């Protein structure tokens, strides 16, 4: 249902069909709306990436923040974590089929953002 606003007999505004739980947009934003989350998924779209390489790709994000986001994404089934049998041990991350479904709209956000910038907006 679509939420709507009407007026009662005294002219007060009344909301009808309001969301009693997070709507699909809110649920989606809770998954990918965290800072750096979209960037992480974007950088994993072409194949597995080792942690330190991913940290280099995402300038401005601390390793602690990247680690937190990677754990969240893994718990949500959007990425997988593989411990490599190397010395020293290293870890690489790969986007899952479910995670790949986000790439289409992340690309649209990228295009939208670039269009805003070209129009002189920050």
| Rg of Cα set | 20 Å
Mean pLDDT: 91
Strand fraction equals: 15-25%
Let me know the largest β-sheet.
Answer: 3 strands, antiparallel
The CATH topology, please? Arc Repressor Mutant, subunit A
Task: Give the uncertain stretches in residue-range form.
Answer: none
What is the number of E strands?
Answer: 5
Helix content: 40-55%
Chain oligomer state: single chain
- What structural class should be given to the helix and strand makeup? alpha+beta
Structural commentary:
By secondary structure, this protein is α+β, with helices and mostly antiparallel strands. About 45% of the residues lie in helices and about 20% in strands. It contains six helices and five strands. The chain has helices at about 25-30, 35-45, 50-55, 65-75, 95-100, 105-120; strands at about 5, 15, 50, 80-85, 90-95. The strands form two sheets. The chain has a three-stranded antiparallel sheet with strand order 3-5-4. It is elongated and about 75 Å long.
Summarize it.
The protein has 6 helices and 5 strands; from the N terminus they run E-E-H-H-E-H-H-E-E-H-H.
Set down the secondary structure blueprint.
Layout: E1 4-7, E2 13-16, H1 24-32, H2 37-44, E3 49-50, H3 51-57, H4 63-75, E4 79-84, E5 90-95, H5 97-100, H6 103-118
Antiparallel strand pairs: 1-2, 3-5, 4-5
Q: Which terms summarize this structure?
A:
two-stranded antiparallel sheet, single chain, alpha+beta, HTH_HxlR, WH-like_DNA-bd_sf, Arc Repressor Mutant, subunit A, transcription
């Amino acid at each position: 249902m679509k939420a709507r606003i009407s007026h009662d007999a005294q002219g007060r505004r009344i909301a009808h069909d309001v969301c009693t739980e997070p709507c699909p947009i809110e649920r989606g934003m809770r998954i990918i709306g965290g800072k750096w989350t979209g960037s992480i998924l974007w950088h994993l779209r072409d194949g597995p990436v080792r942690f330190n390489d991913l940290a280099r790709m995402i300038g401005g994000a601390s390793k602690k923040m990247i680690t937190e986001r990677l754990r969240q994404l893994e718990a949500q089934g959007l990425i997988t974590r593989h411990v490599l049998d190397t010395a020293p041990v290293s870890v690489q991350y790969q986007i899952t089929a479910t995670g790949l479904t986000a790439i289409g709209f992340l690309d649209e956000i990228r295009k939208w953002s670039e269009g805003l910038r070209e129009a002189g907006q920050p």
